[in-house]
Every structure is written in C-alpha cells, then in structure tokens.
Amino acid sequence: MSDQPRWYLVLPLHIRPAEDKVAKLEELRASLQMRDELFMMSLASSPWAVVRSQEAILESLRQQIPDADERKLWTAVLLSRLEIKLKSPAPWDPPPDEIRRRMDNIQDVMRSVNSWEEVLHYILSMDRAGTASDPASPQYQINQLLSR
Length: 148
Prior knowledge:
The chain is an all-alpha fold.
C-alpha cells in the first residue's frame, strides 16, 4: 500500500475513496498543484465525504445503541453535525446563534424529516453555500469524480 498517495493514507477509512478512483484523484491533485494536506482537507469536506461520515456516525450509533429508534439515531447524527459546525465552523456555515437555535429546536427540524435521505439532504443543504457548489472548487471536482 506504500504506492498510495500520502493524502489517501491519512484519510479515515470511512472516507477513503475506492482504489479505482485514487489515480484519477491524484491526477486532479497534481493538476491543481495542491499539497497533500490541502487536497485531503478538500476531499474530506466534499459532499461525498460528508455523506460517508454521516453514514459512519449512524452505523456507530446503531452499534452503541442497538435498541434505539431510527429517528432518534437520525436526530443524534444531525445534532453531532451541528455540534461540529459550532465548534469548527466553515466560512459558509450559519452563524453560531443560528446553529444553537437549530440544536435547541431539533424536534421542530426533525418533524419534516421522514427518511435518512432527508437527513442527508438537510446536512448537505447547510454546506451548499460553500465551495463545493462552485464548479472551479477542488471540493466540487473531487465530488464529481467520486460520485460517478
């Protein structure tokens, strides 16, 4: 595995791309002239990786609390994402007061959620204003490669 790019080796397992995508991603990194660390951060903040991370959190919660209702697990995943945004905000994230308001009113948010896909949509919609929505951004280009 030493022939893998450094950015790949330092990624958590749940957001490592399939091996057949690594060469194309490495070509993209080189074409963008990005350091491994910056490319890794761009990949980790892409919509593809955000979804994989939320799925890993959900699976972990299922194992920790096997008798929990799915909606309660979805709520916990959403709260964990909001907590991350509060502690480590991206420039496009809502202001801290808005994030706290959403956390305090999580049951109101969850009333309109009927599926795991809707939880993911809600989470991704919070990031939509970010660089992943700009076709010139690394996150957008990474997401396009990984979503195929």
